[in-house]
Amino acid sequence: MMSYWPWWAGAIALGTITFGYWWSVGRTVGVSGAWDRVLNWSAERESERINASFDASAFEAALAAATADEFGDTLVATESGSDDPPVDSMPTAAPSTPLPVSSQAILLGSMFVGGLIAAVVNGRFELRADMGEAFADIVVDGWLMWPTLLLGGIAVGFGTRMSGGCSSGHGLSGCGRLQPASILATAVFFGTAVGMSFLVWKVI
Amino acid sequence: MTATATNTENRNRTIMWVGFWGVSFGFTLGMIGFGDFGELNAMFTFQSWRMFLAFAGGVVIAAAAFFTIGRDKLGPRQPIHKGIVPGAALFGAGWALTGGCPAIPIVQVATGYAPGLVTLVGVATGMRIFKVVNTRYLRLDPGSCGL
C-alpha cells in the first residue's frame, strides 16, 4: 500500500485543477452545483431545449420593429449609428449560458473513475460494507452508521445548497479568486467541521 | 464551417476538458487521502497538517494563477447572502460526521466504501429538501458555483 501524497504534491495538483478547469472550461469547478443540476435533470434538459430553440437574431429584429413602431425610426437609427462598441466585442465577466447538464454528469462520473484509478494505484481498493476502522472508532459502529451517514449527508446537501457552494466551489475556486462570500463560507464550514470532529472524537 | 458545427465542436471540446479534469480531481482526492475518514478526522482535529496544507496550498497556487493570468476575467464579487453562514455550518457538521463533502463520497465509493452510497443518497435528499424549503419559506438566492 502506497503512502498518501505529501502536502506539496496535493497542493500543486489541486491548484492546477482549480485553475486549469476554469482556464479550459470557462467556468469554476463546483461539485455541489454539478450534483444539484444532475438531480434536476429533466428541468435542466427542458431549459436547454428552450434555449436552443430561441432565435436571438429574430428576437432582436422583432424588438427593433416594435421599437420603431412605438417611437419611430429615428431612435433605432441613432442607436445603431452610435460610437459605442458592439456588445459582442465587450469582455464578458460571466458566461451567459450554463454548461450542458450532461457535462456535469460527466464531471461526477469521471471523478468516480479518477478515484477508482487512485485506489487501484495506491493499493487501497477494497470493497467493504463499513466506512473503515477510524469511522467505527471515532463516530459510530454497527447499525448506527447508516442513519448517521444519511443524516450527515442530508446536512451536507442542504448546507451546500443553502450556502451556494462546497469545498470545491467556495473552498478552492471561491477562495482562489478571493471572493469574500467564499472566504466566509470556508471559514465557517472548516470551523464547524473542526468543532464537530472534536465533539465526536473526545466527547461522544 | 457552419455556426452549428462550430458550436458542436466547442461543446465537445468543453465536455472532454470536463472529463479530463474530473478524472484528475477524483485521482488527486484519492491520492491525497480525502476519502479516508481517519485522515480527514486527523486534519480537523489538528493531529496532522498534511491535508490542510494540501488544501490551503492548492488555494494559494490557484489564487496566484488567477491573479497573474486571468485577473480581468474573474467575474463580479458574489454577494454575502443570509444563507452563507447557516448553510456552511450545516455543511461543516455533515462533512465531519460522514467524511464527505459532495465530491468525497464519490471517491469513498470508488475506493470500495459501499456505505458512501448512503451519504450520496443523503446529499441528494438534502438538496431536494432545501429546494422545497427555500421555495416555500426561505426564498434565498444562494447562487451556485461552477455552472
Distance between the termini of chain B: 28 Å
Globally, the shape of chain A reads elongated
The rough form of chain B would be described as globular
Determine Rg of chain B (CA atoms, Å). 18 Å
Multimerization status: heterodimer
> What is the end-to-end distance of chain A?
32 Å
| Strands of chain B, count | 0
H/E element order of chain A: HHHHHHHHHH
As residue ranges, the low-confidence spans of chain A are 77-93
Number of helices of chain A: 10
Please estimate the helix content of chain A.
over 70%
Strand content of chain A: under 5%
Describe the biggest sheet of chain B?
none
Count of DSSP E strands of chain A?
0
Largest interface: A-B, 128 and 116 residues
Structural class of chain A: mainly alpha
**What order do the SSEs of chain B take from the amino end to the carboxyl end, as H and E?**
HHHHHH
